[in-house]
């Protein structure tokens, strides 16, 4: 697998580097805006879970272009617990979106006013256990909704990632209580094989007497019983909209590196490999990479492993019956620095 393999498999990954976006997810927000025009008239926007910053780039580019001649009119605040490299026209805030103090700090950057738009492309580190991943994503979306009720002005808009799953109607019902319109959008740049979609909510109008709170509405003793008690407006059907140019690139298809092979529309397009626009600033696997660069991740202990195998009286392909010998062989594989490196990857 060479450097260009992913460029060939994923056309949006390649285009993101060519056009200067920090991640391919930028195309998702661009296509959502093309379909719903969510950025029209927006002067104050919040990007939750913003790192590495591709959605903030889109907001900066489109809002600053839309307000050309009115320098300083558009204000954008990007929020994340992780550090993020600077973006022109974007105020960065390291904070927890489940804390009221974060909401207050966002409003302070808008001089006491509330935002016209809140977007969130955040997602948990997937485990591969679909039920758990879907639950964690729903909790993250509700956390984003909770802070949105603190910082979004009446009739404002909210866009967030969602996993379409068995209990997704409960999330739709919660959102419908706060917004006049709720759509489930699937951008063309989002792989069809993925359950990922985006809720596009317009016309923020909280229930009469509602007081914003950070409490999670899904924390209940019996989830199924709670869902079955929903009646009336809580059970709603949300329109599903596929957005983006349907005749454009297919995110699930593999394309040739030289797009000119596709026809005259791409005549003169010559492939050139480009590194990613903005690599992670503080990746969880940073320690493991440092160990690997110095050959300490695996090679340093090869002799220890062979020696321990010999002491246990077994070959490298046979497992000794003595459990203590197994433990000794395993401990010979890594030292404290290597363990720390692996732990940073697994535990974050």
UniProtKB/TrEMBL annotation:
A biological process term (GO) from this entry: cytoplasmic translation
UniProt GO cellular component terms: cytoplasm; nucleus
InterPro entries: RNA_methyltr_E_TRM7, RNA_methyltr_RlmE, RNA_MeTrfase_FtsJ_dom, rRNA-MeTfrase_E, SAM-dependent_MTases_sf
Keyword Cytoplasm: yes
Subcellular localization(s) per the UniProt record: Cytoplasm; Nucleus
Binding site for S-adenosyl-L-methionine: 53, 55, 80, 96, 121
Active site, renumbered: 161 (proton acceptor)
Keyword annotations from UniProtKB, A to Z: Cytoplasm, Methyltransferase, S-adenosyl-L-methionine, Transferase, tRNA processing
Superkingdom of origin organism: Eukaryota
Signal sequence annotation: none
Transmembrane portions of the chain: none
Matching Pfam families: FtsJ
Molecular function via GO: tRNA (guanosine(34)-2'-O)-methyltransferase activity
Role summary: Methylates the 2'-O-ribose of nucleotides at positions 32 and 34 of the tRNA anticodon loop of substrate tRNAs.
Family: Belongs to the class I-like SAM-binding methyltransferase superfamily. RNA methyltransferase RlmE family. TRM7 subfamily.
Name assigned to this protein: Putative tRNA (cytidine(32)/guanosine(34)-2'-O)-methyltransferase
């Amino acid at each position: 697998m060479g450097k260009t393999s992913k460029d060939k498999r994923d056309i949006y990954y390649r285009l993101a580097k060519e056009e200067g976006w920090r991640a391919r997810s930028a195309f998702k927000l661009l296509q959502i805006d093309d379909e719903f025009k969510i950025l029209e008239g927006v002067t104050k926007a919040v990007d939750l879970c913003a790192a590495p910053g591709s959605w903030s780039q889109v907001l900066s580019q489109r809002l600053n272009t839309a307000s050309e001649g009115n320098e300083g009119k558009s204000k954008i605040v990007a929020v994340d617990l992780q550090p993020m490299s600077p973006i022109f026209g974007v105020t960065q805030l390291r904070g927890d979106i489940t804390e009221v103090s974060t909401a207050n700090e966002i409003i302070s950057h808008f001089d006491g006013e509330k935002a016209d738009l809140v977007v969130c492309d955040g997602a948990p580190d997937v485990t591969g256990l679909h039920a758990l991943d879907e639950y964690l994503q729903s909790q993250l979306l509700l956390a984003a909704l909770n802070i949105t009720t603190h910082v979004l002005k009446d009739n404002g808009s909210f866009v967030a990632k969602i996993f379409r799953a068995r209990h997704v109607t409960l999330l739709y019902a919660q959102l419908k209580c706060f917004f006049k319109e709720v759509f489930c959008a699937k951008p063309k740049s989002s792989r069809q094989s993925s359950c990922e979609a985006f809720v596009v909510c317009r016309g923020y109008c909280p229930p009469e007497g509602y007081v914003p709170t950070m409490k999670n509405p899904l924390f209940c003793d019996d989830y199924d019983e709670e869902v079955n008690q929903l009646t009336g407006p809580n059970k709603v059907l949300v329109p599903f909209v596929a957005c983006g140019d349907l005749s454009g690139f297919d995110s699930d298809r593999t394309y040739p590196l030289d797009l000119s092979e596709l026809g005259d529309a791409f005549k003169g397009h010559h492939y050139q490999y480009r590194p990613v626009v903005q690599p992670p600033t503080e990746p969880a696997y940073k320690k493991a990479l440092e160990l690997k660069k110095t050959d300490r991740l695996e090679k340093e202990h090869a002799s220890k492993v062979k020696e321990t195998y010999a002491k246990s009286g077994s070959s490298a392909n046979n497992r000794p019956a003595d459990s203590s010998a197994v433990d000794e062989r395993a401990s010979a594989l890594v030292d404290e620095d290597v363990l720390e490196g692996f732990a940073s990857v697994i535990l974050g």
